[in-house]
Design a protein that fits this description.
The complex is a heterotrimer.
Chain A (H helix, E strand, L loop, with lengths): L2 H22 L3 H21 L3 H25 L15 H20 L14 H9 L4 H21 L5
Helix pairs in contact in A: 1-2, 2-3
Chain B lengths: L2 H38 L15 H10 L11 H17 L8 E2 L2 E2 L8 H22 L3 H32 L4 H6 L6 H4 L1 H14 L11 H4 L9 H26 L10 H20 L7 H31 L1
Antiparallel strand pairs in B: 1-2
Chain C lengths: L3 H21 L3 H25 L6 H31 L13
Helix pairs in contact in C: 1-2, 2-3
Classes of the chains: A mainly alpha, B mainly alpha, C mainly alpha.
Chain lengths: 164, 326, 102
């Protein structure tokens, strides 16, 4: 077993195990904290896929900012005091069946298709290539995303503001 | 190298970083802090344990090791215990990308990632989750308030720090720390980017919760903030995380702005250590000189002053880089 | 050696976990966490296709970067909505928010 395969299996186990804790834990704070190892596992997978800029951004934004945001909202609403309420609604079995059906469908499609291999190689330093692409071929996407960011920033501030 | 050798090298490096940081940053740093604060306040500091008080922190650590590990009654045991691991771990992970010097075989760095500066910003962002976990898991309203305020402060000051880091990376053309040090062969970045240096120092002081931004752990305000309920070795680990992160921020400032290990006659590692301790002295000097900010003044300073100044600095630098290359 | 199929199976499983959280949890913050897991699964898929099937250009990674950005926006707005709803409705469980106004 090569090192890359071993790393893949360890990271996949970490991601899926913490994902399981996120979706099934009755304590919402445990769920939120278990998001961090899940995101770190995905970061490792990006590094295996030669996407190192994406890995750095994943830790910075997902594990560092979105998790903090989720924990803040849990602590400012009824977070841990609502622990005795039931966390799962009555759609448990149907939800599990739908999720399993979706997984089976996706896995069947993935394993039974011969994906063609494209030409070329990934650049060694993806950060420079991504930067050049954002200011070159993908500039419209870049500018559009910055407008979306501005709008959502203003929107989040206005929605969460206390009414005086 | 085959993967088991890489794994062994990673484990050996982890042990080396942990013991290096534990001894130099935590033990020596705490002693240095007490001696410098004593000198600024016209008194003498610890003198009795060992020659000139040098073994004081060792004695303190031995004392903390034999204290009882108290867990509050209705605290969440899993989160209470894991917070102690997350905070020092994120602080120690910062040291992977710092070049301590250079030898004939190459730079003395644990791993020269080609996203080094981005990795440093990312691991500083991981500390916030640990602080929120510590504040929540203590089942104590002062700890929770301290944790929330500390998290808000650290998240607010990550942005000017990131903008200052981007400006330096823009000048050097790469995110790798070794490339940035080599790009300062002609002129140190503190001369060409003084504004970014000041912004980075202020943001670094706020990131490690030091005065004047230490409202969240001041005794007169919030008992001890997010680590009020931690005793014994867990308290020592939090202090290790805080001092380790301060040393990591100072080391990164030396790498990015003061030319890293570059210098004329002495060996490179010695130059790095001299510059590092000069910056540590500045950090400690600021601590014992300024009063502390209120939380709204602190957050307002970051969002209304530091971020516009950092953005303006970035735009002006980018303009000059483009014009100079044309 | 992990091939494209390994990564696709992993992302399918992660997507199914996120879907299970969205369909069965009552707490609205837990639903948002499920959405984040689904977006991560999609990102792993994009990065894997970029490396194995189309390595000539970086479209997959750029798409994944845009998805991360938009996920952050959507999490911010969604959590602001949860806060505003908690302030006036006193609850964050989605099956208790079932009347338009009272």
């Amino acid at each position: 077993m090569t090192g890359e395969a071993l790393a893949f299996y360890v990271l996949a186990a970490l991601t899926l195990a913490s994902g399981l804790v996120v979706v099934t834990s009755p304590n919402i704070v445990h769920s939120a904290v278990a998001l961090v190892p899940s995101f770190l596992g995905v970061t490792g997978l990006y590094v295996l896929l030669n996407a190192e800029f994406l890995a750095g951004i994943q830790i910075l934004i997902y594990a560092g900012a979105i998790t903090v945001l989720i924990l803040f909202v849990i602590m400012l609403t009824e977070g841990g005091t609502g622990m005795r309420a039931r966390q799962r609604n009555e759609q448990g079995p149907i939800g599990a069946a739908v999720a399993a059906a979706m997984a089976v469908l996706l896995i069947t499609v993935a394993t039974h298709t011969a994906w063609p291999r494209g030409a070329g190689t990934l650049p060694a330093y993806t950060t420079a290539a991504i930067g050049r692409s954002f200011l070159g071929a993908n500039i419209l996407v870049f500018e559009g995303t910055s407008i979306v960011l501005l709008v959502s920033l203003i929107g989040a501030i206005i929605i969460a503001r206390k009414e005086e | 190298m085959p993967w088991y050798l890489e794994l062994l090298r990673a484990v050996a490096g982890t042990i080396l970083i942990f013991s290096g940081v534990a001894v130099i940053a935590a033990m020596f740093g705490v002693l240095l802090e007490r001696k410098i604060s004593a000198w600024i306040q016209s008194r003498l500091g610890p003198k009795h344990v060992g020659p000139q008080g040098l073994l004081q922190t060792l004695a303190d650590t031995l004392k903390l090791l034999q204290k009882e590990n108290i867990v509050p009654r209705r605290a969440d045991p899993v989160i209470f215990a894991s917070a102690v691991i997350v905070v020092p771990l994120a602080a120690l992970l910062d040291y992977v990308v710092i070049p301590f010097g250079t030898t004939r075989a190459g730079p003395l760095i644990f791993r020269d990632l080609n996203i080094g500066v981005l990795y440093f910003a990312a691991t500083s962002a991981l500390v916030v989750v640990g602080i929120l976990m510590a504040g929540w898991g203590s089942n104590n309203k002062y700890a929770l308030l301290g944790g929330l305020r500390s998290a808000a402060q650290m998240v607010s000051y990550e942005i000017p720090m990131g903008l200052a880091l981007i400006t330096v990376a823009l000048l050097a053309g790469s995110l790798s720390t070794v490339t940035i040090v080599n790009a300062q062969a002609g002129l140190w970045n503190i001369v060409s980017q003084p504004v970014a240096f000041l912004i980075f120092l202020v943001a670094a002081t706020a990131e490690v919760n030091r005065t004047p931004f230490d409202l969240v752990e001041a005794e007169s305000e919030l008992v001890a903030g997010y680590f009020s309920e931690y005793t014994g070795m867990r308290f020592a680990l939090f202090q290790l995380g805080e001092y380790g992160e301060m040393f990591a921020m100072a080391a990164m400032a030396v790498t990015l702005f003061l030319g890293g290990w570059r210098g004329p006659i002495l060996p490179p590692v010695l130059w790095f250590v001299i510059k590092l301790y000069a910056l540590i002295f500045v950090f400690m000097w600021v601590r014992w000189t300024f009063p502390r900010f209120r939380i709204d003044q602190l957050l307002g300073f970051s969002w209304k002053v530091l971020i516009p100044v950092a953005l303006l600095n970035l735009v002006v630098t980018a303009f000059f880089v483009v014009v100079a290359h044309r | 050696m992990p091939t494209l199929t390994h990564y696709l199976v992993l992302s399918a499983l992660l997507f199914a976990l996120g879907l299970f959280a969205v369909v069965t949890r009552r707490n609205s913050v837990a639903i948002l966490m499920g959405i984040e897991l689904m977006l991560n699964a999609a990102n792993v898929n994009l990065a894997a296709f970029n490396r194995f099937a189309a390595p000539g250009e970086l479209q997959g990674q750029i798409f994944a970067l845009i998805v991360i950005t938009l996920a952050a926006c959507e999490a911010a707005v969604g959590l602001a909505l949860v806060l505003a709803a908690y302030r006036s409705l006193e609850t964050i469980y989605v099956d208790e928010i079932n009347v338009m106004k009272w």
